[in-house]
UniProtKB/TrEMBL annotation:
It comes from the Eukaryota. SUPFAM superfamilies: Ricin B-like lectins (SSF50370). Residues 10-85 form the Ricin B lectin domain. Pfam families: RicinB_lectin_2. CDD domains: beta-trefoil_Ricin-like (cd00161). InterPro entries: Ricin_B-like_lectins, Ricin_B_lectin. It comes from Penicillium desertorum. This is Ricin B lectin domain-containing protein.
Length: 110
């Protein structure tokens, strides 16, 4: 991950999925054709993939109770979107770690 800044690749759209309470997540830069997913052979590695009918692309947001959110997907089970503290590289991890606490701020409609 890069340092935060005013870049279209760092602005994310959460697209509600009909009747499932889940979202597909895409960046403003790449648009709705590329969404957040995990690899089929390694559900701990998130990446942007071509949008399709895959459970790794269906994300649930749950509040931690401290104004931050945890993100999980239907494919990775109890694992949540996390970042390594030294490299900030994203991965799917268990437990309750600071890299799993995401702040979501609306900037505008995409």
């Amino acid at each position: 991950m890069a340092p935060s800044g005013n870049y279209s690749g760092q602005f994310w759209q959460f697209i509600p999925q009909p009747s499932s309470g889940t979202y597909k997540i895409c960046s403003m830069f790449l648009g709705q054709n590329r969404v957040l997913d995990v690899y089929g052979n390694d559900k701990t590695k998130p990446h942007l993939a071509t949008e399709g009918n895959y459970s790794g692309q269906l994300w649930t947001l749950e509040g931690w109770g401290d104004s931050t959110w945890r993100l999980s997907n239907a494919y990775s089970g109890d694992l949540r979107l996390d970042t390594y503290s030294d490299t900030h590289e994203p991965f799917m991890g268990d437990g309750d770690h600071s890299g799993q606490h995401w702040t979501i701020t609306a900037i505008r409609k995409i």
